[in-house]
């Protein structure tokens, strides 16, 4: 992702984050994973997804598209390698509110057509740039994009954002509180801060942009799944958990 706030959270605190995310939910070993883009391929170097998986990361989010004219050049390579390594796959679109939401939804859905099966998570909208649109217009844009992606993929999208952006650019609207939330909050604590937009819980938490894990060259964003959408194997469209 393009948001950068440089603070970290100790991995041992993740269990506390899960307990705070879903009160009453049994806390198990955290389901963790990075999100990656072309930045994680310096000089064209590959990601070793077997090393990522062996280090305890069950999933990864990969940038697929941006606006109407960009496809991550490593998207297919990463998706194929993730499948072989048994890493659950997610794909996100970086929103460009200056362009048609329906056209971007169609562009994204076409590119990610091959990762909407077993082991694949729902589509993701990365919304962190308003392009100068006022809140009412950006809210309308977001509704139209999400509705189109859901029609094309048959799955309810995940919204990625960060608190300050939502509270300002989106006027802290609660119109999207029914969508799963992937929140970026690098606060160094064991749980995200107060959630924006009427969300009562988060599904994924991006807790650092400066993580280091085996198999990835350089800094990488790290995330944890809360369990808010139920068993991760089910949510990632798998008949059984990876590795079983």
Automatic annotation (TrEMBL):
The family database entries (Pfam families) matched by this protein are listed as: Glyco_hydro_25
Q: State the InterPro entries in the record.
A: GH, Glyco_hydro_25, Glyco_hydro_fam25_subgr
- Note the coiled coil stretches, chain numbering: none
Protein's name in the database:
Possible 1,4-beta-N-acetylmuramidase
Please report the organism this UniProt entry assigns to the protein: Rhodococcus wratislaviensis (Tsukamurella wratislaviensis)
Q: State the SUPFAM superfamilies in the record.
A: (Trans)glycosidases (SSF51445)
Instruction: Tell me the domain of life.
Output: Bacteria
A GO MF annotation of the entry reads: lysozyme activity
């Amino acid at each position: 992702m393009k948001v950068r706030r440089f603070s970290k959270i100790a991995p041992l605190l993740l269990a506390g984050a899960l307990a705070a995310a879903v009160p009453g939910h049994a806390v198990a070993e955290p389901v963790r994973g990075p999100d990656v883009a072309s930045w994680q391929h310096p000089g064209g170097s590959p990601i070793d997804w077997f090393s990522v998986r062996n280090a305890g990361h069950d999933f990864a989010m990969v940038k697929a598209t941006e606006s109407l004219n960009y496809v991550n050049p490593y998207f297919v390579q990463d998706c194929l390698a993730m499948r072989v390594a048994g890493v659950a796959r997610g794909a996100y679109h970086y929103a460009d509110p200056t362009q048609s939401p329906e056209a971007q939804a169609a562009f994204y859905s076409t590119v990610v057509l091959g990762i909407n099966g077993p082991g694949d998570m729902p589509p993701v909208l990365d919304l962190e740039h308003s392009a100068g649109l006022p809140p009412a217009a950006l809210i309308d844009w977001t509704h139209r994009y999400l509705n189109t992606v859901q029609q094309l993929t048959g799955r309810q999208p995940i919204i990625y954002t960060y608190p300050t952006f939502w509270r300002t650019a989106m006027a802290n609207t609660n119109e999207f509180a029914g969508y799963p939330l992937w929140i970026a909050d690098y606060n160094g604590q064991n749980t995200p801060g107060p959630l924006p937009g009427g969300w009562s819980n988060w599904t994924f938490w991006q807790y650092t942009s400066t993580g280091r894990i085996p198999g990835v060259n350089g800094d990488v964003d790290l995330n944890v799944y809360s369990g808010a959408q139920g068993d991760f194997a089910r949510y990632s469209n798998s008949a059984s958990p990876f590795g079983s």
